[in-house]
Design brief:
This protein has 264 residues and is of the alpha+beta class. 14% of the residues lie in helices and 20% in strands. Strands 1, 4, 9, 10 and 11 form a five-stranded mixed beta sheet that branches. A four-stranded antiparallel beta sheet has the order 3-2-7-8, with no helix packed on it. A two-stranded antiparallel ribbon has the order 5-6. The chain binds fe (ii) ion.
Length: 264
């Protein structure tokens, strides 16, 4: 059977109404027609996420020899990870603008065991939804006191903890007036560079969830909810910051979605 060509036809950008209708159709297809099940991992051939159709892998990944690769891979950072690198609010002279918050959680394996001493990196937009990146030129202000990157190592019990600013939603060019829900990108390293995994953490109650093709490309509701942090008053700092808790499961049936299998 000839595969159906689902690549977008060049033309004017779709409207949010059209994208939302496609998202609904994809959920219906996943539930009732295709496999009979929804997907806990992102659907790669997912028309509402326009650019993914042109760039998602269509062949199996090339297997690299880890030892040979590490002779050439860059050293990540030129010094040991310092405790101050987990606080994104102290990287400049002044205070960044926005809702100051603690983001903490545990890195767990598929059996619920903590994964200790792992490198966790984060990057995010500022409170206005703007990244410090030359390709992000939308008219929201940069914050001279906020870069939006940090890193830390998990503790013996698998815990990580960042202090940062709540990122804002931002527009992107998937379709007309497309907005991403607020999110923080997470990168997790294992024992070598071939074990990197990337995912995104979201915030509870975001009104953009239903409209976002990236979030919705995971058609399984429970799997999507695993990407949403929980507000936790116990991790707040009185008079200073709010607090969110988000655990990351690396393997097994409860595994957090990662971009090792996904488009972005
Ligand atoms: Fe982002």
């Amino acid at each position: 059977m000839t595969p159906v060509d689902r690549r977008p036809v060049p033309g004017p950008l779709s409207t949010q109404t059209e994208i939302s209708a496609e998202i609904s159709a994809e959920i219906d297809q996943a539930k009732h027609v295709s496999t009979g099940t929804t997907s806990a991992q992102p659907v790669l051939d997912y028309p509402p996420y326009r650019s993914s159709l042109l760039r998602h892998p269509t062949k199996a990944l090339v297997q690299a020899d880890p030892e040979e690769l590490e002779q050439w891979a860059p050293v990540f950072g030129n010094q040991d990870v310092g405790p101050q690198e987990a606080d994104l609010t102290i990287q400049h002279r002044g205070e960044p603008i926005g809702e100051r918050m603690v983001v903490t959680g545990r890195l767990l394996d598929g059996d619920g065991r903590p994964v200790a001493h792992q490198l966790v990196e984060v990057w995010q937009a500022n409170a206005s939804g703007r990244y410090i990146h030359q390709r992000d030129q939308h008219p929201a202000p940069l914050d001279p006191n906020f870069t939006g990157t940090g890193r830390t190592l998990t503790g013996p019990d698998g815990t990580y903890r960042f202090v940062t600013i709540k990122p804002g939603p931002y527009p992107w060019h998937n379709h007309q007036n497309a907005w991403r829900p607020a999110h923080i990108h997470f990168s997790l390293f294992g024992t070598d560079f071939t074990q990197r995994m990337i995912t995104q953490m979201y915030f509870p109650g975001d009104p953009l969830f239903a409209l976002d093709p990236i979030f919705q490309s995971i058609t399984d509701e429970a799997a999507r909810q695993q990407l949403v942090a929980t507000y936790d008053h116990d991790v707040t700092v009185p008079e200073v910051s709010t607090g969110y808790r988000w655990d990351i499961v690396l393997s097994g049936s409860a595994r957090t979605w990662t971009e090792s299998d996904g488009p972005r």
